[in-house]
Amino acid sequence: MALTETRPATDPAGSVADDTRTGPSQIEELIGSGDHLTIGRLYIGFSLLFMALAAAGLALAGVDSLSEDGLLGLTDALWSSSLVALVMMGALPLLLGLAVYIVPRQIGSAAIAFPRAAALSLWAWVVGAGIFAVGVALGGGVSGTDLEGAQLSSLSLGVMMAALSLGAICVATTVLSHRPIGMGLSKVPFFAWSMLVATPVWILTFGSTGAHIFLGWISEADALGLAEAWANGISWFLRVPSVYMLAIPALGIAADVVAKVAGRRIRQYGMVQGFIAAYAVLSFGAWTQTPRALQTFLWIGWVLLAAVPVVALLGVLGDTLRRGSPSAATSLIGSFLVFLLILGGVLAGALQALDTAGSGSLFGFDTMALEWAQGFFLFGAATTGALAGLAHWSPRIFGAPAPEGQGKGAVTAVLLGSGLLATAYLAEGLAGANEQSLGTEVFGALLAIGGALVLLGAVAGLAMTLSAARVGFDVPDPDDDTGLTLEWAPPGLPVAGVAQELAYVNSPYPLLDLRGDDDEERA
Amino acid sequence: MSDTPTVALDSRTPPPILPRRRELLFGTAFATAGAVMALATLLGAYLATRSATGDAWLSANNIELTQPNMMLLTIGMSAVTMQWAVWSINRDDRYHAYLALGVTLVLGAAFVNQTSFLYNLSAITIVQAEGPLFYAVTAGHLAMVVAGLIFLALMGFRTLGGQFTSRQPDGIGAAAIFWYACVALYPVIWFAVYVQK
């Protein structure tokens, strides 16, 4: 059996030498920790920080483009790298951090699978994100002109992709192998399920984009060559259908949030799992890398079909909510906004799909702008979902509920920011049909406002987590007698897990069953 | 047994059984999927570029088929010996498990050796137009094979240490998953790169 935890001391009696030994400092413990709770919290904190940094870069790029000559004299890399930075440094790691923390608890496991790999994933991503930021500042980024900056950015993008894939593998393996007896895959909570189905899609997508990064490196491409490698081989993961993959976990979060807030079990459990899985399958887009693939009916159908499971899931969750007595909590509001933003992305994708039918330019839309619109819609969906999840599970993650005001502020700011950015690009894309454009100044102003709103959302999210953490720092996990799934189990209640193999879970909502609440729907 | 009282969440508690965690199997399967996807993408890029280039592709180089054919045979045989190791460890036949792992390692090393010989023979340089894609595909696969050999060797040592038995054969199984992926990829590369040139 693999040694996954630090070996305990072999001399319990102690010795003179032991007395002189100093334990690791707090920083050393933090960096060396394989505890999924610590890793998850660090992922969440760093991702919000980096998201704020990327959003600030986008806002500055918008201000810079208010003048034709560049108002601030900044590099174009700030703008061209903003979306990929928001996704790879913000949205995806935020969702992953939430998963690293919550998913093992949802299935009653005391630990995450491969804890050291999870720690490696975190620190490799932090280093990668830092290097990417430096590369962009140097004028590199994903399509910059500075060779060293572009090389740094290319390398760090690959590192971030590998690190996030590794973290996702740890989470998915936990779901597959750490479940308690009786909890089949058909009974795992929705967030855990969504991470399980998202992981293969993320791995396959990043495996494919990673290959193009590798090709760029071994061909010793210059800055222009690296920019071409980005445009032709990597950027496709930020357009439909691949970009749908950002929001897969957000659907799982939404389903768990609605059930908990409504206090009702979701009746069509298997169907909801099926909807999430179908959406995940439809978000696999590595086969659409080449321009020719975009001129097929398969691509058009693939892009449009993604709306079906999303709308179906929305219907089921709406029905669940109708049967309960929900309050307008941040988590609930954020959960439903996820659907709005995903459908916005589908709309932008549908417009591009219709445009590429036939010869490839039926209406003459600016497809590049439409791709950016899809990216910002789905970034917004992923981030809104993550913030909703953060507010929802705050009592478990930070020991205290998240302040509602800051939570709602964060969700609203991200919704408005990403929505504004996406809408601006959507308008730009549609204007292309008449060979028109919004104008540099107007477009720059919209970018600046949108970037500033996302920045505000990230800062508000950070403030929300810090407030909850400060309040709950010395408080043990509070009891919550409204929880349905295992992550809400009171600390004193031994449930399933590594140390208690005897526990038997035979329901998607074990705590609801354990309470024996009046629940006429169980039958 | 721990003193901690255990609360069953369902009255139909089954008798205690030791669950097989299969962590390593699942983790390896996920990682293997990513590696296969990367190599498939490289191969796709290779084929697309070759198709666009036409007859001029690798016209200055001579790639013999003898070595690729032998490599195909070698790595094909290693799939059989790998399965032999899995079969043996599942039946606690440790002697045959060691033997099978050893033969697989030898066959893998032979594959690496033949690839190195083929590289020298074909004299494709990294600076020529075909170089980056040729080596991205073939050396990418070679890197997978080397990683597989290291994985196998590590699992072999752990088997020697008695860590894997019929009750816990996951290490050998995980190494086998990765190795089978290496084996399955090679016929595709053999046909697309070496046979079709």
Describe the structure.
Chain A is mainly α. Chain A has a single domain (33-487, 502-513), classed as Up-down Bundle (Cytochrome C Oxidase, Chain A), CATH 1.20.210.10. Chain A is 66% helix and 0% strand. Chain A has helices spanning 16-20, 26-32, 36-64, 77-80, 82-106, 115-137, 147-177, 190-218, 223-234, 248-262, 269-282, 297-305, 307-323, 330-356, 367-397, 404-431, 440-472, 510-515. In chain A, helix 8 runs antiparallel to helix 9 (223-234), helix 10 (248-262) packs across helix 15 and helix 11 (269-282) runs antiparallel to helix 13 (307-323). Chain B is mainly alpha-helical. Chain B has a single domain, classed as Cytochrome c oxidase, subunit III, four-helix bundle (Four Helix Bundle (Hemerythrin (Met), subunit A)). In chain B, helix 3 (94-122) packs antiparallel against helix 4 and helix 4 (131-160) packs antiparallel against helix 5. Chain B is elongated and about 55 Å long. The termini of chain B are far apart. Chains A and B meet through helix 7, helix 8 and helix 18 of A and helix 1 and helix 4 of B.
Output the radius of gyration of chain A. Answer: 23 Å
- The share of residues in extended strands of chain A comes to under 5%
Report the average pLDDT across residues of chain B: 87
Taking the sheet with the most strands of chain B, its summary is: none
Q: Spell out the CATH superfamily of chain B.
A: Cytochrome c oxidase, subunit III, four-helix bundle
Helix content of chain A: 55-70%
The tally of strands of chain B reads 0
Number of strands of chain A: 0
The CATH superfamily of chain A turns out to be Cytochrome c oxidase-like, subunit I domain
List the helices and strands of chain B in order: HHHHH
Oligomeric status: heterodimer
